[in-house]
Write a structure and sequence with these properties.
The protein contains 9 helices and 14 strands. By secondary structure, it is α/β, with parallel strands linked by helices. The chain has 2 domains: 102 residues, 4-Layer Sandwich (Metallo-beta-lactamase, Chain A), CATH 3.60.15; 106 residues, no CATH class. Helix 5 packs across helix 8 and helix 8 runs parallel beside helix 9. The longest helix is centred in the C-terminal third of the chain and has 14 residues. The structure holds zinc ion (2 copies).
Length: 258
Amino acid sequence: MRLRVFASGSKGNCLAVSSGASSILVDLGLSCRETLARMKACAFDPSRLAGVLFTHDHADHCSGAATFRKRFPSVPFYANGATADAVEARSGVSGGWKLFETASSFDAGGFSVTAFSVPHDAADTVGYLISDGEKNLFVATDFGCVTSSVRDAFSRADAAVLESNHDMALLSGSNRPWSLKQRIAGRSGHLSNDGAADLVRSAASPRLKILLLAHLSEECNASRLALETAKEACSAAGLADIPVEALSQNEPSRLYVF
Ligand SMILES: [Zn+2]
Ligand SMILES: [Zn+2]
């Protein structure tokens, strides 16, 4: 499988997974223009996409959806019913959905995809375990706490895109209003560096070969802190040698092959 992350963070999220001739996206949270510019810079051809999976309806995950639909009307959008309704209401997209039930598996572009529920303050947020039949990619970028379904999916991953949103001390010392701090740190908010590390320690299996830290807060995190915390957790889980990298809001990642 091949993975390219075009953007990760509160200003927009989008990644592409490819296997053989087929590719799918997870989320369209940059403007369509910026998404296409980043794809072009990576020599990624959007016209061969077999679908776009949406995790939830927050703007940083769907704001490019309406324009993308106009440019590529034959590319289906995948979501659960509540997310499809909410993305339509937010972005103006209409129709063209392939709906799935949360906690089920379905085919998208030849991939076997399992959507698992995650606790987050949107309509019906999911994470994904995407499989080409041999390798599994875990993607979960907006969730406040680890549940048994998150742990189960993570334990099957060969590569993982895992939220490592904030450092607790930087969040509590920030100038953000108290209510926003509560929202971010709450059980339906965003996963901290320590939360991500706990998941790695408790659920990573020896098959995990790449750990990518996602949705880092620009104000309440530093990639050095997130990486330090995650690498310690990998060592504790017997995975001291795997690459651990922090994804960027501003530029596409390198191409990961696993
Ligand atoms: Zn987000
Ligand atoms: Zn969100």
